[in-house]
Design a protein that fits this description.
By secondary structure, the chain is mostly helical. The chain contains 26 helices and seven strands.
């Protein structure tokens, strides 16, 4: 072959040049097609009941137009249900639905918003993730980005169609904060201050990550990094201004003095404003005074004083958001939710199909720290990644709620680990970076393997105890089944059901009111639904009357009788199998329905009517 032919053969094709020039676009299209296909086939990538409640919240916001009133009209315990999520998390979906409602109709526009907005949020998230991959130093981001996404798919599935909870917005804001920290100019710090205030206003769940953001800006100032003083002042001022501005936008004037520890309110704005003003003032006070020990001491004095004031003003917020909830609800429901446990307490870690993926995530989370252990391997972007990966790992182990965010950091670390094992030829040369790897080729994977082995040894020796399953949890077991709850409910119908079934009803455009859904502001309703089915409850009718419910909905069993269930939970088993007491009347349902519905009585003592949407005969076994 001639030299000219060799040159032509070595040139990349037009499609390859297009991809290498726009890897984010191609990765977005691939993720959008994948998640949309899985969604259309009925696969639930998250299967989170919060999405159903969020749909109800968005619908209520559009119907009422009241941004301050977070009382959800479809949930009556009979106490009103007040959401702990601020209206700003509903804003993207409500705005999109409002835009398309004149053309498509209200409900179709709301469905379209639930489908499209998560994908629209995915686009900037992937752009920021690519910026992060590029800043770390990979020579070929077009190869590193899709590989990192494969490893981090669990985190980015939060942007799948229908995933309208606030977690995708949290991920987007955190990625923006990480990218902004890579820059060392004052404007980036100022924008990061505003984003930090916004992220905490969305949810305090990411407070540990943003505490680390603040610590990095403080470190730059304490050790006199170039521009560190301007950055900490700009960040602090923006944080204080953003916190106060969001407080005015989210909280109605009548609630300015109210203390709610589980949503953005006075304690949150006070904490953020105090932190921001401290960052803005401390550099001025410490100007020209001593070195890093003096700066550290002054900053710690301000931090300690702020913490003390917050503890005195808001002592009720020192405990967890669930501290005020009745112990019965905590023991029977909240403490049994897998994401509310630590990995040490979960009974399903070792010898499960998820254990190999957990080991991979451990390896990826620890790999950047191994590289940073050597001075020649440290760079600002890599150190920041290592710190956030370690924090994410600690949070995921201690509180499984954070486990969904770990792949976002582990995905990049796994590229380093994979590159250290591959030869320089082939794929290996496209994963190399100027960051010096560890001297031993297995050094990057060893810490993760050791941590995984320690987890195995702990679970095999400790054997986390499994408490008895409450009757209401068994009666809620059909939640994952693909079903449409009955419609055509009589006016004023109120359904008492286990919480997950309640979330199915509350998402209906025209459905009954429900007593409870599986969120902690519905703790009173949760307690009533659990006590109603609890075999220790002497008179279930008293619970039904207290909830003012007109109907009962419960998962159905249409096969042979279940002696074990009947022995352990006689009342719940009777309802599940279709043998109600005389004071309940079973309503007709489709033979394929996973639910049994019983009518009780209205508030005036008359018999409650059944839903009328189904004419099928009652499906008794």
């Amino acid at each position: 072959m001639s030299t000219g032919a060799n040159r032509v053969a070595a040139q990349p094709s037009g499609s390859l040049r297009l991809y290498t020039g726009s890897p984010v676009l191609f990765c977005f299209c691939a993720m959008a097609i994948l998640t949309t296909t899985l969604w259309s086939l009925g696969f639930q990538l998250n299967n989170d009941a919060d999405d159903l409640l969020k749909l109800h919240e968005i619908r209520t916001l559009l119907e009422t137009g009241n941004i301050f009133d977070r009382t959800m009209p479809g949930i009556v315990q009979p106490e009103p249900y007040v959401s702990h999520w601020p209206w700003i998390v509903d804003l993207p979906y409500a705005a999109f639905a409002r835009l398309f409602a004149p053309f498509a109709g209200f409900e179709p526009a709301l469905t379209l918003a639930s489908f499209a907005v998560p994908l629209l949020l995915l686009a900037p998230a992937l752009y920021l993730y690519n910026r992060l991959v590029t800043a770390i130093g990979f020579a070929y981001p077009a190869v590193a980005l899709p590989l990192a996404l494969i490893f981090a798919a669990r985190s980015f599935f939060e942007f799948a169609p229908g995933r309208i909870d606030y977690h995708n917005l949290q991920i987007l804001l955190l990625l923006a904060a990480l990218v902004l920290m890579m820059s060392q100019n004052r404007l980036s710090a100022l924008v990061n201050g505003l984003l930090t205030a916004l992220a905490i206003a969305v949810s305090a769940e990411f407070a540990p990550f943003y505490a680390l953001v603040m610590a990095i800006y403080a470190f730059d100032w304490i050790f006199d990094r170039e521009g560190g003083e301007k950055r900490i002042i700009g960040f602090g001022l923006a944080l204080a201004v953003g916190a106060i501005g969001l407080f005015a936008a989210i909280v109605p004037p009548s609630a300015y003095t109210a203390v709610r520890c589980d949503t953005y309110s006075t304690p949150h704005v006070t904490a953020l404003a105090a932190a921001g003003l401290s960052f803005a003032v401390v550099p001025l006070l410490a100007s020209g005074r001593g070195g890093w020990p003096m700066r550290t001491a002054i900053l710690l004095v301000f931090a300690a004083a702020s913490a003390a004031v917050l503890a005195v003003l808001f002592p009720q917020c020192l405990a967890s958001p669930y501290a005020s909830i009745d112990a019965y609800v905590r023991d029977n429901m909240i403490n049994r939710i897998l994401q509310e446990l630590s990995l040490f307490r979960r009974p399903d870690v070792v010898l499960s199909t998820s254990f190999p993926s957990m080991a991979l995530l451990f390896i990826g989370a620890l790999a950047p720290a191994v590289i940073c252990a050597r001075p020649e391997g440290r760079s600002r972007p890599l150190v920041i990644l290592a710190l956030f990966a370690l924090l994410s790992l600690a949070l995921a182990i201690g509180y499984v709620r954070y486990y969904r965010y770990l792949p976002m950091f582990s995905g990049i670390g796994l590229i380093f680990a994979l590159a250290s094992l591959l030869p320089n030829a082939g794929l290996g040369r496209y994963l190399k970076s100027p960051v010096p790897a560890a001297s031993h080729r297995y050094a990057l994977i060893l810490p993760g393997l050791v941590l995984s082995g320690a987890m195995v040894l702990y679970h095999l020796s400790a054997k986390p105890a499994q408490a008895a399953v409450p009757a209401a949890e068994l009666a809620d077991g059909c939640y994952s089944s693909p079903f449409e709850p009955e419609q055509g409910w009589p006016s004023g119908a109120v359904v008492l059901s286990p919480p997950l079934i309640g979330s199915r009803f509350v998402a209906l455009a025209e459905g009954p009111k429900v007593v409870t859904i599986p969120n902690h502001p519905s703790a009173k309703g949760i307690e009533r639904s659990y006590r109603f089915l609890d075999p220790a409850t002497a008179d279930p009718r008293a619970v039904l009357d207290a909830s003012k419910a007109t109907h009962v909905a419960i998962c159905a069993w249409r096969g042979p009788s279940l002696p074990g269930l009947e022995t352990a939970y006689p009342f719940a088993a009777a309802l599940i199998e279709g043998h109600p007491p005389a004071w309940l009347r079973e309503c007709p349902t489709k033979a394929s329905s996973p639910l049994r519905i019983y009518s009780y009585r209205n508030g005036d003592g008359s018999n409650a009517a059944c839903p009328t949407s189904t004419l099928a005969a009652q499906a008794r076994p």
